[in-house]
Amino acid sequence: MYMVSVSLLVIYLSHLIYKFYTFNEIIVDLSDKNFDFKTRYKREDLPPHYPNGWFSVLESRDLGVNQIKPISAFGVDLVVYRELAGKVHVVDAYCPHLGANLGIGGRVVGDSVRCPFHGWTFNGAVRIKVWECVEENGFIFVWHHSDHQKPDWFPIPIPDIRDSRLVYRGRAEHHVNCHFQEIPENGADVQHLNELHEGPEFLGTVVNRSMFYDFVVKYLRYDWTATWESCPAPDPHMAHLDLRSVYSLLGFPLMPITLDVLQIGPAIVHLKINCKLLGDINGYIIQTITPLAPLRNRIVHHFYTEPTFKAFIFSKFMIYGEARMVERDVVIWNHKKFLKQPYFAKHETPLVRFRRWFTQFYTEKCPKVEDW
């Protein structure tokens, strides 16, 4: 009996070690599939729901050579395909001949896509819209502009990722019911950090805040400081956030973390991370936001660290911790209302500056509430 118990314990511990070693993904969908924006908003309450800029429509790892996939983004159905040479193309989903969806049964032929219905092939030279796209940092981005303007800025490559000095550790994905602007605006909302994100990740979200939660944060907590600024010319489409956090026990700092955050357009964020834990641990978090439909968005995070064992262990906690912290925001976003004219406090000038900065991504022809 003793040997059986020991064997079961060894098997259980081996399973836990295996799960910890292989854990690299969290997917959370807290959105309401039956959400009706009309019950929360009047027609005049919202800015346009799709800003102009580069948006991630697919992750590079999900598209193989000679593979084609149907996707939806910013209210449009598209197909993404990769030719034999590796180049990615994005075109309208529906065949201009008789409307078949090219992503359902279509095939890649050379640099073109062949319709499954009548065998017509398209690469943009004949009566089908080609969307400008780039592949960078593990994502496929598409340029969306309601006024059909050409891009005057592009996603930025991260040299440490491109040259494999940092290795991919995993991803997190969240789905959210809120206006698109709520999500990037969160970075400039410095004041919410020490209210919503003071408690350790294992305490859950704000909706289950309890006496135990309040007891724990007296002794074990995060303390945050942040500074948000828009970038001057020639990069007015970018903004910078200097974010610092200290994880402390009984007031003693255990793990200072510095995040050098670069917001690139409305939907791309690079977070360069440095953690002081038995020396330095360096890495990157890449965040992309994709508007799928009005008030329905997908947030994806990719995690990279140095190729060391210490950084590997840290990455597991980084993936889990970041995902749980984002969930706290998601719970708020899913149930809050975007206010075009909120009552800002005097110390909330970063939010005022952010809203002024973000208006550059809206133009007259951006789809508005009355277009829903």
From TrEMBL:
One Pfam family cited in the UniProt record for this chain: Rieske
Pathway: Hormone biosynthesis; Steroid hormone biosynthesis; dafachronic acid biosynthesis
Catalytic activity from the UniProt record: cholesterol + NADPH + O2 + H(+) = 7-dehydrocholesterol + NADP(+) + 2 H2O; cholesterol + NADH + O2 + H(+) = 7-dehydrocholesterol + NAD(+) + 2 H2O
Keyword hit for Iron-sulfur: yes
PROSITE patterns in the cross-refs: RIESKE
EC numbers on record: 1.14.19.21
Protein name as catalogued: cholesterol 7-desaturase
